[in-house]
Amino acid sequence: MDLVRTKGSEPLYYQLECVLKTKIQNGDYSKGDIIPSEKELMEIYGVSRITVRQALSNLAVNGYIEGRPGIGTVVIFEKINETLKQVISFSEEMAQHGITMSTVFCRAEQKVVTKEIAAELEMDEGASALCITRVRAAKNIPIVYSMTWIPPEWNLPEDTSCYMDSLYAYLKEKCGIIVSRAIDTLEAVLADKLVAEFLCIAENSAVFKRSRKSFDPDGRILEFSICYYPGNSYKYSVEL
Question: Strand 234-238 and strand 80-84: pairing?
Fold first, then answer.
């Protein structure tokens, strides 16, 4: 892929970073592979050593590569593959892969539910429910943008500090509420402007959408969540 050098185009280091990132995400360079050396990248793309080093530095900071003395620059990025077997939180899913999550955005507020959300929560349209909007990241890379609606009868606080870590852990440990069953709906969609901004991806990029309705042991609806995952960072398996 040739880099664009016309007036007003993106900086060459950023273009090179995007090219290499795409190759890694698409599997051209898989985890454990050694990417071309600085000199080779300079020759392939016709850029300076400074440009190459800036691009590689950004990729390293974002968890795609790391330099190893005596070996070269190695790909460390790998798609997260989650196997659907039981009801667990996203934090628990990631912990099973040895990944520590951080919440980089959180907002909790009472919002009037739409017709769709009202139907899922079995509420009247126009009523209000607690809406928790979050962006969770791994190694500074946004992994999921989620919106969770919780019916008012659960009387949960609007304090965002309650939802910075695992929601299910908070419900169980602080509220005595256990999630015992869930219905997941999975689909592939294109990111709209809002989803793209939260996940730091291009608009119309492929994303993985998961809708979940969960219940407590008595069968009462506990939550309805819509989560978006970058298609280049996440995949799902279902064991039947």
Answer: parallel
